[in-house]
Each structure stands twice: as C-alpha cells, then as structure tokens.
Amino acid sequence: MDLAFALKAIVLGIFEGFTEFLPVSSTGHLLLAEKFLGLNFADENFDKTFAVLIQLGSILAIVGVYFHRLVKIALALPHDPNARNFTVGVLAAFLPAMVIGGLLHGFIKGVLFNPLIVCIALVVGGLILLVVDERSPKAVYHDATTFPLSMYVKIGFAQCLAMIPGVSRSGATIVGAMLMGADKRAAAEFSFFLAMPTMAGAFAYDLLKNYKSLDMSHAGIIALGFAAAFVSGLAVVRGLLTYVTKHGFAVFAWWRILVGAAGLAAIFAGVGQP
C-alpha cells in the first residue's frame, strides 16, 4: 500500500467525520482541502469512489450512537403519539432537501462547487452563527423529539440552504432550530437525527449516479478513509452535545471565519491547485 495514499485517505476520512456533524461544512472543507492542500487522488473515478464510500463511515457512526434510541422510538410507534409525531417530523424535514436536491443536483455540482463560493459561505455563515449563538430567542423547546410538526418542516427548508457548499447542513439546521426557540443542545441533537435520512439519501443518490464508474482497485485505501470517517464521526457525535450545552457554538463560528478568510486570501494570491 502506498504510504502517501494511505495518509491522504486517513486525513480525508478525518476531515469528513469531524466536519460532517459540526456546523462548519464538511463539503466546503473537503473542497478546500483538495484545492489548496492537494488532498485528492489523481484518478477521477477513484476520487468519486472514495468520496462516496467514506460518507458511509459517517452515516454508520451516527446510526451506531443513536441505535438504541432509534429502536426505542420504532417500538413505541404503535402506541405513542409523540413517537409518531417525531418520526413524521423527521421525514417531513427531510422531504424538502430530497426534492430540491434531486431537482438541482446538476446545478449544485456544476456551478456551486466553487472555492470562492465556499469561502464566502464559510465567513458569512460564521458571522450568522456568532450572532444567533449570542442573541437567539429564549429557548422554549428542550427536547429534539417534541418540536411541533410545523417547526420540523421549517427546519427542513432551512437545511436546503446547505446545498450551497460552505453553508453546512448541520449549521443551517441548528441556526434554524434556535431561531424557532430550540435550546442549543436540542438544536444540535435534531441536526443529528435529520442527518440520518439526509446523508443516507445523498449517499444513495451519489451511488446511483456513479456506480458504473466506481473504482475498487485500492480497496485498502478506501477502507482506511472509511474507518477514519467512522471513528472521527463517533467522537464528534458523542462529544458535541455536552460541549455546546456548556460553551455554545462560538468556537465553530470563529473557525469558519478563519478558514473562509484564509481561503479567500489564498484565492486572491493565486495559490492552490489548478
């Protein structure tokens, strides 16, 4: 196994796992890592294979953490109206992204996947996250499973903003939930629940679009990236709720601003891969 390839796979997997569930934009970070750090593979088909399959590591991480709770909710569906309301709410929140993402997939990939757009979105999103973290409305919802159905739907539409790379899926849902009265912990936890169908849907769509060109010639490299994404995703999901309950989201907002500003400086200086 090529050591350079192996290290690249591990770093990209860690990028994916850590940034997927933080309000910092995993897509934006991966795109900038490819642009400015050369963290991509020379073979375009293998790049696609790797990008698709390491997502699965992050998906399995969050499902693993919430597995027992998901089973409990599923078993309660026949007799518990709260469990039914929550399940319908998650599906309703997922629906806008499924429809709009499917319709605009070509435009998003072809036009919006641009380092300049990513950097601007990182900075603007960081500033918004700072303001909302400090001045969000008084929290009236403290449990992600008991939001009103209309609130779940509105959060789903907020999530669609993350189709702009650099916005962040978790960032959009967290900000949307907090603006509607969720406390920081509940907002972050619902972003986890909504991540499951959203990420699974995106993974299935990418797999369907690219399965003919999937390249498994370096299965060991893919396995390393998958494992790195899984382990780092586990660490984030298990630690984020405790952290944001005590400290809020300011550190992630400043990180976004720093990365976005550094990317803009690099773009205007002509730095990076062609």
Automatic annotation (TrEMBL):
Subcellular location, record wording: Cell membrane
InterPro entries: UppP
Topological type in the membrane: Multi-pass membrane protein
The keyword Transferase is annotated on this UniProt entry: no
EC number(s) reported in the record: 3.6.1.27
Transmembrane segments: 49-67, 88-107, 113-132, 187-208, 220-241, 253-271
Enzyme class at the top of the EC tree: hydrolase
Domain of life: Bacteria
Keyword field contains Signal: no
MF terms (GO), sorted A to Z: undecaprenyl-diphosphatase activity
GO BP terms, alphabetized: cell wall organization; peptidoglycan biosynthetic process; regulation of cell shape; response to antibiotic
Keywords noted in UniProt: Antibiotic resistance, Cell membrane, Cell shape, Cell wall biogenesis/degradation, Hydrolase, Membrane, Peptidoglycan synthesis, Transmembrane, Transmembrane helix
Family: Belongs to the UppP family.
Function: Catalyzes the dephosphorylation of undecaprenyl diphosphate (UPP). Confers resistance to bacitracin.
Protein name per Swiss-Prot or TrEMBL: Undecaprenyl-diphosphatase
Organism: Alsobacter soli
Lineage of the organism: Bacteria, Pseudomonadati, Pseudomonadota, Alphaproteobacteria, Hyphomicrobiales
